[in-house]
């Protein structure tokens, strides 16, 4: 069986985890946590990075940090994971879903401004497949209307937009280190990127259950107390040790994934030229991270037929999100602004192929050969 995904392993994870176990500091903000946070701050030129248990936790942190409350509206695409919306719904916000672009599967930046009302507080662009949204347009709209921008860059670690790392462009960015992502913290994990310096102090307090514990350990206060609302948003140092091994090999992992992505593109391009499928589109000014390789078909029936065909050959391929606005909770906690021209239609055509760091060339060739045989 060729799996759809296998968590990346570089070989030094166990050594670092054993080191963390011997340090006497397994909870959050240990030595490996600091190393990881400093790595991101240095390499992505971000004022402050805080590791969290998941990207879900990072998004929830962002919603608290921005004081999202009942009656507020938050704009985002419907084609995204449930956590993108849930984080703001938990604060009482109403979600305003906007249609996507069929080329990148990202939010259509030209439709955002019409969806803004006097209740709008934030825009949440989602960088699908590690391909950047049009952030210049989105940030200009946010500045014009006095809004916050929270980048859901769960899939965007190591991707850039016009030379800037995804997650570092909006006021806040959120990363995921789930086992399905390019880099993992041993199964789960995330990070909150604070790009507006005035938000850093409160972000640390919210992450530490509403206390100023971080300031206490830096010697800035003589005791720590409860200052604000918050929750337990610290990643365990044991997980950070696993993540550190991955970050040391970050470029190696990125290069291998890009090589696999390019192999797919080159091998399947003749099928696109024959009109049998559609390959991914890369946005101008964006350097992607090969988070996923997807193909699209004319109909969902053809896609589903290929899924079954590949499964018979013991190759797991999967479709992706069911649009949130069509779900029970989506109808209850939000609404779709304007016409759903592309979101539902394009989501029904998309199929993801196996792509992971430890995938062998032989595995990939088996996927390509089987896929070609389906069309033959």
From TrEMBL:
Belongs to the DegT/DnrJ/EryC1 family. One of its GO terms (biological process) is enterobacterial common antigen biosynthetic process. Its cofactor is pyridoxal 5'-phosphate. InterPro entries: DegT/StrS_aminotransferase (IPR000653), PyrdxlP-dep_Trfase (IPR015424), PyrdxlP-dep_Trfase_major (IPR015421), PyrdxlP-dep_Trfase_small (IPR015422), WecE (IPR032894), WecE-like (IPR012749). Its EC number is 2.6.1.59. It comes from the Bacteria. It is an enzyme of class 2 (transferase). It catalyses: dTDP-4-amino-4,6-dideoxy-alpha-D-galactose + 2-oxoglutarate = dTDP-4-dehydro-6-deoxy-alpha-D-glucose + L-glutamate. Pathway: Bacterial outer membrane biogenesis; enterobacterial common antigen biosynthesis. Catalyzes the synthesis of dTDP-4-amino-4,6-dideoxy-D-galactose (dTDP-Fuc4N) from dTDP-4-keto-6-deoxy-D-glucose (dTDP-D-Glc4O) and L-glutamate. Pfam families: DegT_DnrJ_EryC1. Keywords: Aminotransferase, Pyridoxal phosphate, Transferase. The modification N6-(pyridoxal phosphate)lysine is found at residue 181. The active site is at 181 (proton acceptor). GO terms for molecular function: dTDP-4-amino-4,6-dideoxygalactose transaminase activity; pyridoxal phosphate binding. This is dTDP-4-amino-4,6-dideoxygalactose transaminase.
